Amino acid sequence: MKWRASLISVFMVLLSVLSFGAVKEFGNDIKYPAQAAFSLINSGGAVDKTAVFSSIESLAQEYDIQVYRPFIDKNGEQATFVFHPTKNDESYVTNIDSLLNSDVSGMYYTSKSVPAAFREQLESYGLIVQAADISWYMIPVYFLFTNLRSLAVWTLFFVFALGLLAVKLMYAKQAMIYRSLGQFGAIQQKHILQDIGSLLFNYMILLLGFILYQGTFSNVFVKTYLLLMGVNSLILLGITCFVNGIYGLNIRWIKPISILKNKPATRFVLWVWLVGICLSTSIFGLTLHKSLDMIARSHSQIEVLDKWEVAKGFATITWFNSMSENMDANHQIDGQFMKEQTEKYRMFIQSFEQEDMLYSAPSAFGEATSSHLPVPLQEELNANGIKPQLASAIRYVNKGFIEKNKQLYPTNQYGNPSTESVGIIYIPENQLENTENVRAIVAHEWFQYSSLSASDLTVQPVPSQQKTFLFNHTGDEHELFTTQEKTDAILVALNVDYFTEDALETAFLNIAHVGIFKQSIIQEKITSAGLTNFSSLTNVAEKLLLERNRLNSQLTGSVIALTILFICQLFIMYEYVTTIMKKCAKKLAIYSLLGSQNYQVILRNLLPILVINGISAVVVWLLTLHPSVVFLVWGMFMLELLIMSLLSYHLVMKKRVQIIKGDFEAV
C-alpha cells in the first residue's frame, strides 16, 4: 500500500505544480471573480478619461456588474479598482481619483458577460472595444492537446501507468498466493478502492491548500486550477483502474511458474518502459529547446520594460481640441488665437527643466511614411538629399532623453559637445559619411520657413553599435516591444530655447502633445502658462509595467513547467534504474560474495537505456539542429544514470545478505 500511495502522491504533486505553471502561462491567473473581460484601446484621439470612467460606473450599476481594473498605484505596486463594489473589500480600491492618472486603455474584468450597451457607450468616445467571456474552461484542452508540452504531459501519464504496474508486479508472488486461496478478487477490489481513496485524498488536500493560498474559491485562478486538477485526477483515476485491470488479468492468466521466476511480465514491462523513456526523453529535449527560446524572448521583453522604471513618474497630457471653437465660416483658424495659443505652449515647454521632460519622436520622412507619399514628392525629397532609409535612423530628442539614456547605458559615450547651438546631432561613426544628408533632413523638417539652417547644428560623432532606449509609449503591443531599443540611432537633441521665430513656434505644440513630463509638476506648469484646454494625465509607465508584471507571471509559469517536466524525467529514469537493479540485485550480491567482477552485469543490464538515450539524442539533434540542447539533455540523464547506478550498487553491496534471502525492497 505504501508504495502505491507514495507513487500516487508524487504524481499528484508533480501534476499540481505543472498545472499551476500552465494556468499562469495561459494567462488565467486572474485574481478576480470574473466571468468576462473587455479591453479598451485608444485609437489616437483625445479622450476624456473622467467621462469614460463615469460611464463604466453608470453601466456597471445599471446592469449590476462589478468591473475590475488593475493599475499601478502611487507606490508603484499593482492594485485593483472596482466599479460598482458590492461590499467593503479592502483589497480593492474604490476611490475614482486613484484611477485618473491611469490610461483608459487596458484590460477590464467583469463579473458577468459584457452587455452590448458597454460596447456602444464606450465606442462613442472613439475607443476600440473588444469583449469576450473568459474561456477558463478551455485550460484542459490547452494543457493536454495544443502544444509540444502536451506530449510531455501524456508521457508523464504513461510513466505513471508503467510505474504503478511495476509497483504492483513487485507483489505478484503474494498475489499468486491469494489467487490459489481464492481471495485474489476481494484483495484486488480492496486495492482499487485504496488507490481511488488515495487519489481523492491527495486531490482534496491540494485543492484545500490552493484555496487557502488564494484566500478565496471564486476567482478565475482558483476555478481554472480546480478544473485542470480535476481533469488530471480523472485521467489518473482512469489509468489506475486500467492498470489494476491489466494486473488482475496478468495474475489470472499467467502461469504461476512464470510469476514465481519473475520472467515474462517483468521483461514486457521493461521493454515498454524503454519505449516510453525514448519518447519522453525526445519530447523533453524538444520542449526544452522551444521553452528556452520562449523564456529568452520573454526575459528580453521584461528587460526592455524594466527600463521604464526610470520614467515611472512621467505622464502624457491629453488636450481638448479647442481649434474648432475658433474657426470662421470658411473653417479658417483665427490667427490671433493661434498665435496666443502657440505662445502659451512655448511658455509651458520652456518652464520645464530638461530632466523633467522627455521628448522622443521619429523623423517624418522615414521609410514607413515616405512610401505612402506621391511619387513626384518622393523624387523631390530624394533630390534634396532626404533619403527615407537614412531618415528612419533619425530620432528627435531633448537633453533629458540623452541624460536618461546615460543612466540606462552607463558605457554609452556622447562626448562633450557645445550646448550653445540649436541642436546636436549625435551620429554613429559608421554614418559619418551621411552627415550632410542628416543635416538636410533636419533642416527640411524643422527650419524650412525660418532663418535657421543646417549649418547651425553641431555634429558629435559617437561610437558605433551604441544602444538607445527610445521611450516609445504609443502603438500596439508588438510596436512597444520592437521599437523600444535601437542600435546606431542618429539622435538629434533639439534646443528649443533657440526656437524664437514665429515659424518655429508650432514645434512647442508638437512637443506638448508627444512629449512626456514629470507628473507631479504638470498641473502647476499648465496653470502658469494659462493653458485652458487641458483634459487629463496618463502615467505612461503604468501600462508597460503592468505588461511587465503579466510577462513575469507567464515566465514564472514556463520555468515552473519546465522544472517539473525535468523532475518527472529524472523520476522516470530513477524508476527504471531502480527496477533494473532490483532485477539483477541477487546476481550482483552472489557475484560479490564469490569475489567475481560484477560491473559487467550492471553494464549489460543498463545497455538498453544507454542505447535509448543515444537514440533520443540523435532525434533531438535532427529536429532542433541545436547541439547545446542535445549535450545538455543527454549529459544530465547520463549523469543521473551514473549516480543512480553507483548508489544502487552501494546499497546492494551493503544489504547483499538480505537480498540473497529474497528481500527485494532492500534496493
Automatic annotation (TrEMBL):
It comes from the Bacteria. Coiled coil: none annotated. Keywords: Membrane, Transmembrane, Transmembrane helix. The chain crosses the membrane at residues 6-23, 151-171, 192-213, 225-247, 268-288, 555-577, 606-625, 631-652. This is ABC transporter permease. It comes from Streptococcus suis. The lineage of its organism: Bacteria, Bacillati, Bacillota, Bacilli, Lactobacillales.
